[in-house]
Amino acid sequence: MQKQQYLTKNQQIVLDLVEKSTQPLKAYSILFNVQKKGLKAPLQVYRALDKLVEIGKIHKIESRNAFVACKNSSCQVSKATAFSICEVCEKITEISSSSLSKYLTDFKDKDGMKYSKYNLEFFGLCKKCR
Amino acid sequence: MQKQQYLTKNQQIVLDLVEKSTQPLKAYSILFNVQKKGLKAPLQVYRALDKLVEIGKIHKIESRNAFVACKNSSCQVSKATAFSICEVCEKITEISSSSLSKYLTDFKDKDGMKYSKYNLEFFGLCKKCR
DNA sequence: TGTTATTTGTTATATTATTACACACTGTTA
DNA sequence: TAACAGTGTGTAATAATATAACAAATAACA
After folding, report:
1. What is the per-residue pLDDT across B3-21, written as a single tens digit (0 to 9) for each?
2. Does some domain include residue B4?
């Protein structure tokens, strides 16, 4: 069997919700919102989220246990992510800076080790909150 | 009242344990290990961890919900952290690269926004696992 | 000594995430 | 076409991670 080409029903329902949201959503908030669509159990949501993260449609904000849709339409795989997080209003923005991603993708540590993936989270105050 | 100068008993117990460990520890594994020393409840551990993270003695590996002692003895505040994580053996190393930290500390986004703190996690395979 | 902030201990509970198992769907291949 | 492999689904139960709320103890210091 080939790798899945299209999203399944559950994955599409979850993705639609996350894409509509202007801010990151928590898993159980997603669950609450999709219960009318038939996803009754946490696992149904987590499975959809896992897949969507794997194929790069959404990202997980690790420090917040929350999920956002990937804004970068060409993003097929989630292997280089960077976010800015306002510590007051919790506004979260995906950073797309080619110089930053180039710097980090090329980064080698002391032992010359190169990494296949990274996640970066910046914290500070957004414009409004300053 | 002045900012706390020395660690409290609970904080010291938790720090000692985390410093002795060669790998990151989970909160409930810490709890299990310090129960003989009188810390019986999760909250006692979490409170100590919060404080230790705040003063930079330990860092949290967000993607793993685990805690490591800071290897950098001069690290007083935890505001710029970077780790490498092996996705096979889960070995985690704190990266101390002055060029990396300079690059990230100086990083400004499109709007010219500068951040006060960041956390970076690299994923890949360590030497042994390749 | 009285005041204030911080820390502690305790119980209960909230939040986040996974295990386990039976079954269904889809395409491959023997 | 029947067996199978891989993936996805539904469900219940439970594990793992983290916080709320409150009363009491402790430390700093005017």
Report:
1. 566 899 999 999 999 999 9
2. no
* Residues in chain A, overall count: 130
Give distance CA A47 / C1' D2 (Å). Answer: 31
With respect to residue A1, please indicate whether it lies within any of the assigned structural domains. Answer: no
Task: Collect all residues with Cβ–Cβ distance below 8 Å to A104 and sequence separation of at least 6.
Answer: A80, A82, A118, A120, B120
Q: Residues 2-41 of chain A: which lie with beta carbon within 7 Å of strand C?
A: 2, 26-29, 41
**Mutation site, B59, B61, B62, interface A, largest A CB count within 10 A:** B62
For residue A55, the 8-state DSSP code is T
Residue B42 tokens read as: 């999760």
Q: How many domains does chain A have?
A: 1
- A118 within a domain of the structure (yes/no): yes
| Domain coverage including residue B65 | 9-124
DSSP state for residue B53 in the 8-state scheme: H
Mean pLDDT value across chain A:
91
Question: Is there a contact between B123 and A115 if contact means CB atoms under 8 Å apart?
Answer: yes
Cβ distance of B109 and A84 shorter than 8 Å: yes
